[in-house]
Amino acid sequence: MKKFKMAVLQLNTQENKAEKLQQVSQMIDEAAEKGAQLVALPEVFNVIDLHKTPPEEIPGGESSQMLIEAAKRNNVYIHGGSFLEKVDGSEKKYNTSIFISPNGEILGRYEKLHLFDVDLPDGKRIRESDRNMAGRAVVNCETSLANFGFAICYDIRFPELFRLLALRGAEVIFTPANFTMPTGKDHWECILRTRAIENGVYIVAPAQIGVKANFTAFGASMIIDPWGTVIARAPERECIIYGEIDLEYLEKVRYQIPSLRNRRADIYNLEYIGE
Fold first, then answer.
1. Which residues are annotated as catalytic?
2. Residues 164-173 pLDDT 10s
3. Nearest to residue 225, comparing CAs of 206, 239, 256, 204?
């Protein structure tokens, strides 16, 4: 299939997990009714409560089960943004994306690779690694729609990941996020458009919006084409946006700007962990 309709959900997720799962299920139904063949969700779409809610098993948890049922009910692919997954034998969690087929099969899963550990100028230390475990695999998923690649939030600052995904065939890369307002207003669109341009891919960026417990989320969910053009952008509220993924156009752009073909692999190479 050379063209398909993409839906992106922008959410203001808070502490009421059951209420949010019901809302997301209804939004998926609405997107499917409007012709979307794939629906993408933001990071931690199910609950944001400073890690009070226990992580889930995948499959078997209520968030993954809701997505599986919604995919089957609507005959659509679903990219499940991300949510916290239980890690056997550890108190830490994975921040995990899952990709679900129209028959409810989990075709791919990705654990966030890059954890946000930073020392701020005011002396505050943020250590995502204190509570989450980093993944160890670069993940692509080949389907009848396209070859999809996966990233989550902070991952967008690491161009190596996106180049590896593109070299492994990615045509569309998901970047679900819960970006903060200060960095979002200056970096979000700039980075994402660059990742699309330098790799000749569509970037699908579902985001959180709204005031959370410890910061304000930037929002600005968008779909970006391989030329770097923003073809869909969310307003400042919860909503669904739509865009067409056109793989013939992607091939045209890659022919015009052959950066993947012109790489000097004889001079430099990227190594990575994972299959």
1. 43, 112, 153
2. 999 999 999 9
3. 204
